Amino acid sequence: MSSKIYVGNLPYSVTDASLKNNFSEFGDVSSAKVMMDRDTGKSKGFGFVEMSNAEVAQAAIEALHGMSVDGRSIVVSLARPREATGGAGGHGAGGFTASKRADVGYGNGGYGGGRY
C-alpha cells in the first residue's frame, strides 16, 4: 500500500507547513506539498502528503476525509499513480504526424492546396 496521500478541495489559505502540521498528528510526514499555479503563484486547491508508512497514512485518510477546513470539506485519499501524458504539446507518443489523406495538403492543385 502506498503512503502518498492526495488532499483535495483545500482552501487557498493552506500552506505546505500547515498541511504538514495537520497530518503530523497521525505520524511522521516525509513531505507535504500544496500545488501552486505556475503563472499566478496561488494555490490550485490540492496537494500531496507523503507519510512514513502505509498504516499511518490510512489512519490519516480515515480521520481527515470530509473534515471541514475554513468552511471547505476536504477530500483525502490515496494518491493514484500519475497517468502517462500524450507527450509534448498534447500529441501522441510519436509526436505530431501529418494527415495521411491524399486530398489534403500542399501541391494538390489550386492556391489552397486542396482539391476543388
Automatic annotation (TrEMBL):
Organism for this UniProt entry: Ideonella azotifigens
Keyword entries, A-Z: RNA-binding
The protein's name: RRM domain-containing protein
Alphabetical list of Pfam families matching this protein: RRM_1
Matching InterPro entries: Nucleotide-bd_a/b_plait_sf (IPR012677), RBD_domain_sf (IPR035979), RRM2_NsCP33-like (IPR048289), RRM_dom (IPR000504), SLIRP/GR-RBP-like (IPR052462)
Parts of the chain that traverse the membrane: none
Domain RRM per the UniProt entry, residue ranges: 3-81
Protein's UniProt keywords contain RNA-binding: yes
SMART domains from the UniProt entry: RRM (SM00360)
